Sequence to fold (350 residues):
Amino acid sequence: MPPRFSLLTAAAAVSLTLALPAIAQRDTDDDFPLRIDRVEIVGLDAALGTILSARVGPDGQVYVTDHQSAQIVAFDPDGRLLWRSGRKGRGPGEFEMPYRVAVSADRGVLVLDRATSEVSALGPDGRFRQRYTLPVLFGQVDHMVATPAGELLISGVTVARSDPRSARYGIHRFSLRGQEMKWLGSFGPLPPVQDRQVLEHWGAGTLTPASGGDVLFSVRFPYAIHRFDASGRAKSVIRPSRPLQGKPEDAIIIEKVGASTIFSTGTREVLRPGPAWELPGGWTLATRLSDRRLLWDLVSPAGTVSTRSLPENWKTVVGYDAARSLLWVTATENDEPVLLKVSVTLAGAK
Fold:
């Protein structure tokens, strides 16, 4: 039987005990070492419209990009609403499509507006500071990480015709000094595809912060987690021994009709690598996900892998709070977008 856990709402201290659905047992190892102790629903009272991304800061605060309200929404580590920032528009502190978010070293927030190709810097209280224009044109932006040195790393696919220097790589490095954003170079692999246009819809891979100022880059195909320092020096690679389902070309279909190019979504389920998170004691939580399911692959320091399937309404892990042993996960509850605060215990972690 899958383990049971307590499900709580942050707004109402009502505890419900639920079992993971039986269908999940096919993908789950009996000896999965990461135990889920409790799950709290966060954000029901915040009336979140559409969560496009979320990040957990080093102090445990959580920042969400809400596309529908064109706002950034901040929660404290206990799940209480701290502030909202932004509205629809193109003025200072306004957004057309807040798409990706990163937390800077001073606990400020960096927000990428997908519609305008601009990055807005907000203070720890959500107040607008300044705005930068991306010097490189992106076809797809996957994730962002702000480095301790004040730089910004963006994983994604640049448009080759606009900047061939960066087109062969999946991670792009920028400085944010003064009033200007400058491209400093690119590194990291891209998924191998026959038609590069697929990548402008599929993406490059997910980028998450790790200890020592490093980052983990989970390339979108094949299943490999690369560790780089902030300057782009390769340090290690984890290749979890778990299968993927389908390829990028199965998810993104390109058709040429006369002089036009038509993109559509494939009908086959494609299981792609999701974000990877560094856990205590040299463990790594890797993920595989599709529109239909989420799998956690826990990689031990020795390289062995255990797998667990999550409920269908769980979407993706957006952060790990080591001080509180919490994983934050996006999900839906009664078709409403929410965050889940997941208390976990790692067997054997020190």
